[in-house]
């Protein structure tokens, strides 16, 4: 009987440890409301890459990220029609704690859906690494 409870305790400890190392999934949705297709490349501050995706006009891309104590911020670069802009799509410092972050891209930046009744908070583009 003791072996069974030790095994259960070990599995619970392993589960807790894996959650703290990997972090819980946070879901992203990025809507393209710009017009032309948008190329999107996202990565975390620690270099973890989400990857590259092209979002057609009036379409969206859904993916998940895995924040943890070493990975508290994710940023994306958006390219379309000669434009290149950056946006921090997730930052622990904002303290929002959403399970899903729903972004809508526009010419001036991107807006984040803040609740289920359609309130949006808009953010300006960050300066791109190439100066655009």
TrEMBL record:
Source taxon at top rank: Eukaryota
UniProt name for this protein: Uncharacterized protein
